[in-house]
Amino acid sequence: MSVLVTGGAGYIGSHTVVELLNTGNDVIVVDNFSNSNPESLFRISEITGKDFKVYNLSILDREGLEKIFLDNNIQAVIHFAGLKAVGESVEQPLKYYINNISGTLILCEVMQKYEVKKLVFSSSATVYGLPKALPISEDFPLNATNPYGRSKLIVEEILEDLFNSDKEWSISILRYFNPIGAHESGKIGEDPIGVPNNLLPFITKVAAGELKELKVFGGDYPTKDGTGVRDYIHVVDLAMGHIKALEKILFTKGVHIYNLGTGSGYSVLQIIASFEKTCGKTIPYTIGERRPGDVSACYANPLKAKSELNWSTMRGIEEMCADSWRWQLNSKKDYKKIKTIFAEMENPYLLKSKRDFLL
Ligand code: NAD
Ligand code: UDP
Questions:
Q1: Is residue 11 annotated as part of the catalytic site, yes or no?
Q2: CB-based contacts of 194: which residues, under 8 Å, 6+ apart?
Q3: Residue nearest to atom 12 of ligand 2 (CA)
Q4: Per CATH, the architecture of 2-358 is what?
């Protein structure tokens, strides 16, 4: 199948492109590299030994997007492109609503025009807000607490409306819990710009000596050790979930919503301990104030995805930490240089070899 992947150079997108190529799909990536680097795409090519087409374009560019649909026989879309920093979304809500909501509206309009009505959408467990109970099932009440979460919730509702207006659509909404880890090759992984907001990238940078110490946000939650509990999921397991979701929408119509999580919760202190074991170093930390807006605990009931998609996670917390650490040790070579050179290349670029650029 020929699959358009928006945001395919990003963290989850790049791992999903690997799995799509490994399962025999043709992939076309569209990304504006606002939060990623084209180097990840070359690394995907190295991992899989496969070529694919890349468009350096924003999904807000309707004309550009239409040209992609005209020039390629796209059968389905996996839509990762979006901004994801909660704090930034509070400071710049319009930027988030334009990119995440208008971007999706434009994408869906173009898909409708070109009769491509199969879509997998990246949503988030943040749409549950403060959950009424644990573990969290898909039918729990929804309540976003910040502009980022609201952008996801609004898009979910838009997609429901779209299907209600045209029953030919087939849509999978995937609510991710906390993706961490990296590809086992150490070639691709999460590459946040600046100081990371999320726990694992912060810990890896402390372990690598790039940051001094971790601040644990809150030690007085009603959890096993007082620190926040989350459902951490290996990004490769998450990527596999997209392959299963794609298979599902090939043969069914409707809107299908799935939690993608492991079903187990780990506290911040448990994650620190596991990471220390992996890297053989002590992670200095202090316990500070709670971070505003954080919930004490959040983990999935993953049974719907298991029964309907035949998907469940395979990788445990040790593997997640080990792969994050390998990525931290291997990651950064050539990154900056490639971004500058790539900006000057023709669009689309058929991704074959990085040597084309560097010679
Ligand atoms: P990421 O930032 O690494 O990847 C997103 C990609 O989309 C980046 O490559 C970015 O350059 C691109 N992009 C952003 N706006 C674009 C636009 N207008 N046009 C074209 N490309 C654009 O983030 P990720 O962690 O891979 O997340 C992927 C998706 O999953 C996002 O929609 C995010 O909100 C959602 N999600 C992520 C998490 C998480 O913890 N990582 C959790 C739940 C949901
Ligand atoms: N956390 C922390 N220090 C940090 C970053 C995160 O203690 O520097 C905690 C946070 O309070 C939460 C957990 O780690 O309990 C996961 O946070 P993350 O931001 O990675 O995910 P989210 O809160 O979005 O689920």
A1: no
A2: none
A3: 228
A4: 3-Layer(aba) Sandwich (3.40)
Amino acid at site 287: I
Q: Say if ligand 1 is within 6 A of residue 218 CB.
A: no
Minimal-distance CA residue to ligand 1 atom 4 = 10
| CA 99 – CA 93 distance, rounded (Å) | 10
Ligand at minimal distance from the CA of 216 is: 2
Query: Ligand 2 within 6 A of 215 CB?
Result: yes
Indicate whether residue 167 lines ligand 2 (CB < 6 A): no
C-alpha closest to that of 325 among 146, 170, 204, 151:
204
DSSP string, 171-218: EEEEEE-EEE---TTSSS----SSS--SHHHHHHHHHTTSSS-EEEE-
Pocket test for ligand 2, best of 146, 198, 227, 286 (most atoms within 8 A of CB): 198
**Torsion over CA: 40, 42, 46, 47 (sign):** positive
Q: What is the pLDDT along the chain (359 residues), one digit of tens a residue?
A: 999 999 999 999 999 999 999 999 999 999 999 999 999 999 999 999 999 999 999 999 999 999 999 999 999 999 999 999 999 999 999 999 999 999 999 999 999 999 999 999 999 999 999 999 999 999 999 999 999 999 999 999 999 999 999 999 999 999 999 999 999 999 999 988 889 999 999 999 999 999 999 999 999 999 999 999 999 999 999 999 999 999 999 999 999 999 999 999 999 999 999 999 999 999 999 999 999 989 999 999 999 999 999 999 999 999 999 999 999 998 766 666 677 777 777 788 777 666 565 54
* pTM summary value: 0.97
Nearest CA to ligand 2 atom 7: 216
Contact between 300 and 260 (Cβ < 8 Å): yes
